[in-house]
Design brief:
mainly alpha, about 80 residues
Length: about 80
């Protein structure tokens, strides 16, 4: 059987692009060993669903899931608590 490319759902792609659009266009973001990218380059990669686009989508979705699960909130509370 041939290797099937996994497509990014339109709703997810739109969400990731919307999140990227709020970034400053002048800043570069490093994506591991893939290199540095501008906001517009990242948006283009997400739109093209290439390896970099899939990687940034995975990173963003993991972040959003962690926020939804309360991971950051719980960690912040435990870091700010002091023992009496």
């Amino acid at each position: 059987m041939g290797k099937r490319k996994k497509k990014i759902k339109k709703e997810v792609k739109d969400l990731i692009i919307a999140r990227l659009e709020v970034l400053s266009p002048n800043k570069k973001i490093s994506i591991g060993s893939s290199g540095e990218f501008t906001r517009d380059e990242l948006i283009s990669h997400v739109e093209n669903e290439d390896d970099v686009g899939k990687k940034i989508t995975k990173i963003e979705m993991e972040y959003l899931r962690a926020v939804k699960e309360g991971d950051f909130y719980e960690q912040s509370i435990s870091n700010n608590q002091t023992e009496v």
